[in-house]
Design brief:
Strand order of the largest sheet: 3-2-1-6-4-5
Number of strands: 14
Helix content: 25-40%
Order of helices and strands: HEEEHEEEEHEHEHEHHHEEEEHH
Largest sheet: 6 strands, mixed
C-alpha cells in the first residue's frame, strides 16, 4: 500500500491523470476485500489489487472511460445482476467461473481538461481567471508576449511552440485575439484534439475569417467545428460577462456529452519548412516597413505577421495580406517596386 501512495504522489506532482479504484463491497468468492485499492494510469497500467484477472480487465476499461469523462463512478461487477439497477451505478457481468460480486468506486484524478486560450486580450485573461472554478486548466498563449524576441518565425509555429498541454483528456479552446491574428490562432489550436473551439468575434467578422481559413488550406470540417461568435447570447457586457457566456457554452458541451469533436491535425496551417516564402528564421528586424500587399505602414518589431523571402523580412498588417503575399510574392513585389 505504501508503494501505491508513492505512485499517487508522483503522478500528482507531475499532474498526470490516473484513476484511484477502491473496493467498497464484496461478496464471496470474490478475491478482493473491502478497502483494497489500485491505480489505473492513462496508458491502462494497473498498480495495486482490486480483484482477479476478469475484474482487472473490466476495471481498466471503465477507468479509461472515467479519464475521458472526468467523472467518478460506482462499478458493480457481479454474476447475479440485480433486476433494478440503482441510478449512478454501472453494472457489468462477472465472467469468471468463480462468480462472486465486487463493487468499486472509481475516482479520476488530475483530469481537469486544458482550456487553451489564444490572445492577450482582457477576455482571454478573464477566461484564464475563471476557468479553474469550472474544473478547467487554463493555458494561455499569445504573440504579443513574444514581440521582444524579434523572431520572424511563422505566427502559427510560434503559437504551437507555446502549447505545452497534456492532451490525454480532450482540450477546449478559445481564440480571443480581438481580430489581431484570429486565423493564426485558430490554425495553431487545430493541432490539438478538441471538444470545443470558440472564436471571440462578430458574425460579420466571422465571414471574413472563414474565407481566410479556406485560403490558408483549412478543411471545411475544421471551419464548421469552430463556434463563432463564441458564447451564449446573454446580453453580456464587459470581459467578465463575455467570459462567463463562453464558459457556460463549454460546460454545456462538456456535460451534455455532445459528439462534436475535432481530432487534431498538426499539419493544418503549418508552413512547409522547405518553402522560403513561408518559413521564417530568426533574423534581425527593422522598424517601419510598408505592407507590400495593401500599402499600409507597419512596425516590423511589433507586428506578428512577418515573412522572410530571399533574406528580406516583410511585414504585414494582418494574416490575410501575409498569406496572399506568400502564395504569389512576385505579383506584389513587382507592384511594390
Amino acid at each position: 500500500m505504501d508503494n501505491l501512495w508513492e505512485t499517487a504522489r508522483d503522478l500528482d506532482e507531475r499532474s498526470e491523470p490516473y484513476v484511484m479504484v477502491t473496493v467498497v463491497r464484496r461478496v464471496r468468492p470474490s478475491s478482493a476485500t473491502v478497502g483494497d485499492k489500485a491505480i489505473v494510469t492513462a496508458d491502462g497500467e494497473m498498480k495495486g489489487f482490486v480483484g482477479g484477472q476478469c475484474t482487472r480487465d473490466l476495471v481498466i476499461d471503465q477507468a479509461k472511460k472515467c479519464l475521458t469523462s472526468g467523472e467518478s463512478k460506482l462499478l458493480l461487477v457481479t454474476s447475479q445482476p440485480p433486476a433494478d439497477v440503482t441510478e449512478g451505478v454501472t453494472v457489468l457481468p462477472m465472467t469468471c467461473a468463480s462468480e462472486g460480486t465486487v463493487e468499486l468506486f472509481l475516482e479520476p484524478k488530475n483530469v481537469d481538461p486544458p482550456l487553451v486560450l489564444v490572445g492577450d486580450s482582457p477576455i482571454a485573461h478573464a477566461l484564464a481567471e475563471l476557468a479553474p472554478r469550472f474544473s478547467l486548466k487554463p493555458c494561455r498563449v499569445s504573440l504579443e508576449e513574444l514581440m521582444h524576441t524579434g523572431s520572424a518565425e511563422d505566427p502559427v509555429v510560434k503559437l504551437r511552440n507555446q502549447l505545452h498541454v497534456n492532451t490525454t483528456a480532450t482540450a477546449y479552446g478559445v481564440v480571443a485575439t480581438m481580430g489581431l491574428y484570429d486565423v493564426d490562432g485558430l490554425l495553431a489550436v487545430a493541432s490539438l484534439p478538441l471538444r470545443y473551439l470558440g472564436l471571440v468575434t462578430s458574425p460579420k467578422r466571422w465571414t471574413t475569417v472563414r474565407a481566410e481559413l479556406e485560403e490558408a488550406g483549412a478543411s471545411s470540417e475544421f471551419i464548421n467545428f469552430v463556434t463563432a461568435p463564441a458564447g451564449f447570447d446573454i446580453g453580456a457586457v464587459g470581459p467578465n460577462e463575455i467570459a462567463l457566456s463562453i464558459l457556460a457554452q463549454i460546460v454545456e458541451r462538456r456535460r451534455r456529452g455532445s459528439n462534436a469533436s475535432w481530432p487534431g491535425q498538426s499539419d493544418v496551417g503549418t508552413p512547409d519548412s522547405g518553402d522560403s516564402a513561408t518559413h521564417c528564421s530568426h533574423v534581425a528586424v527593422h522598424q517601419e516597413v510598408v505592407d507590400p500587399v495593401c500599402g499600409m505602414t507597419v512596425d516590423l518589431a511589433k507586428t506578428p505577421h512577418r515573412l522572410e523571402l530571399d533574406g528580406t523580412i516583410y511585414g504585414f498588417c494582418c494574416s490575410g495580406c501575409r498569406d496572399r503575399f506568400a502564395r504569389n510574392p512576385e505579383k506584389y513585389l513587382q507592384s511594390h517596386a
